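Batch manifest line 744
LIGAND: S-adenosylmethionine
JOB: complex structure
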Amino acid sequence: MHRKRQLDGSTSRGQNIIPEAEWDEFYATLQKNLPVTFRISGHRAQAEELLNTIKGKFFSSMLNVKVDDEIVPPPKNLTWYPNELGWQLDLSRKIVRSSESFSKLHEFLVAETECGAISRQEAVSMIPPLVLDIKSHHKILDMCASPGSKTAQLIEYLHGSCAPGELPTGYVIANDSDNKRCYLMVHQVKRLQSPCCIIVNHDGRLFPKIHIKRDDKNPECQLFDRILCDVPCSGDGTMRKNFDVWTKWHPLQGANMHGLQCKILQRGSQLLEAGGRLVYSTCSLNPAEDEAVVCNLLRSSGGAMELVEVADLLPGLKFTRGLSHWRVMTKAGEWLDGKDNIPAHLKTQYKETIYPPTPEEANSFHLERCIRILPHHQDSGGFFVAVLEKKRHLPGSKEEREEMKEASTSEVSADDSKSGAKPDGSNGVTELVEGGKRKAGHVSEQPESKKPKMFGYKEDPFLFMNEDDPIWPQLRDFFGLENSFPANQLMCRSAQGKRTLYFVSEAVRNITECNEGRIKFINMGVKSFSRSPSPMVPDCDFRMATECLGTLLTAVKKRKVTMNRQDAITIMSEENPFIQKLSSDLRNQLNSLSPGSTLFTFTPSEEEKSPKCEVSFCGWRGKNSVRCFGSRAERAHGLMLFGEDLSEINRRVEAAKKAKKLAQEEESQNSGSISVGELDGKLDEKTLQCDVDDASDSNLNEETPKCDVDEAPPNDVGADEKEMASDGHKVEEKKIAALGEQPT
Ligand SMILES: C[S@@+](CC[C@H](N)C(=O)[O-])C[C@H]1O[C@@H](n2cnc3c(N)ncnc32)[C@H](O)[C@@H]1O
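JOB STATUS: finished
ARTIFACT:
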């Protein structure tokens, strides 16, 4: 009953947010658990391959499954998510426990999430990045980004519109005001292995303008082509997973968030390039946090910002349209109709901007272009999305003033009067500048003379390399890096030791260098080389890192081999297979390579039925054996693409191991003389150390495989995490890695 009373307030029947006839269905849906939703991510060809596997191997066995005599609904495709890559299914604990096919799929999804091939994300949360219409050259800002599920999508789309092997010229800046939450994003973003993303830590309301190098001396301000404002909100749309909302929600929460949301959106609009697109979203159904915030921006922008119709971009998605009229409720549950009737003591809590537009404003604002997704529409959470485009510079902005200098005075004044700008050239917007001072009037970046204060900012430096660095010749010559490979896009976090080198795109490097001391950079770059000296490799102390595979495959010319299907399966499923076990073609290639870090690639032939995509990994060419340097999840993913099942392989290996041990014990009992270890040693003394790790005796249950002592240096999967642990953020990172809670 209590739940219902609160609900009546939140999405009140009087508001008509939920059509009256749908109220019961809406309310019943809120009582049910959210289904599991996920999207297949990664490069196009691999994503298609994975989709085929999921459909063929898992979904086909999930039709007509009964649990407790009830048919479990089959997996449902999210029609509005492109290329059939978004799915929804009921994976409740009860179903997972009682159905083998569902429990296998659950296991599979956990593993594929770990290696980044799929992302579990609430269906409605996938919408904002989708409607941003991202291209590879876009400069993108995610203003309230943590924990980063939408940032991940933005990065994927940025890379998705690039030719294979090419890097986007655009980038994603992922910002959050909460320093700890910024580190949550580090893990999320790391899975995507993109050199085009920067994580920063600012209050979105005060987000500084980004400087970039125009020429050697003069920096210039850069605006963004795409901005996502997925703002903090009361979260009344998340009632199906955040049960706290049922007891803690009250109508004042929306009013309390309204001011912050307005300021973040306002700042977003100032940072948006003319012609650019901005998406405003909340997981609240309350108009105070939704339409009222959008309305406030439309009003102050004097026509520069316009809502865009997006229904066509989301085929099959059910939603209701934005409202042009709503009512305001007090904490005590009373209506506060009319902004002129707010009692004096409530004026600080209920701003005038929380009220609906006038009829004239409503006519020009087109709030019906906003969309509200209601939980019962397609068994999801509640969500609100508004897509805005900037038709011209904001009135009174620095950009407009610059444009005015070039245009004729008469034309500009005419435009001003149309746009509603004030006589002083401002749009009446008060801009907060870093340090908390208010600057009334125009909306330019903060004064150049005053550097923003970097309160509480403490990060290791980002130190870029250049071609004079003593490390560079060994990297260039050993790996045969292309002449065009930019040494100055390699970076480390500590001048001493240079243990790990990270790779960033040209744009990211430019931004990092031009904004040092202005922007609180938290993280950027993909691990590309890590120091791992081996006596067998005197010419180079570094090995390539799997995280940078995408870039290395194009840049590295020397240490690359191609493999056939069977080679790929052998190397990914066994710990240290002997070179003589591999095909003659691969043996020949390996024989002409000295020991050391090596890239392995499988390219499908025309006849190959599956996989139809390339499969590559970073590995090691040892003296007598090779190894794959992928984590267990990465190797399981690779094997899955070849139709192999890692757990099945491991079961076989375990069974063979047991049988062998039993046979040896029996034999030694019969002969009464020789022990198991001695027997192994006698079989192949020369390669004893390899033999210990030989495939027939190994399985891949270890995250970090054992190292063949005279062969590869240890696989330092997780070294970054060790580095991170020093700043106390490791625990948070681990939390997000788990597949428990579904991120919004
Ligand atoms: C709804 S969550 C964002 C979810 C995220 N976009 C995602 O999809 O994973 C809102 C985020 O805004 C952050 N936040 C709160 N106030 C902020 C501010 N003034 N500026 C920037 N971020 C803010 C919170 O720390 C929180 O991480």
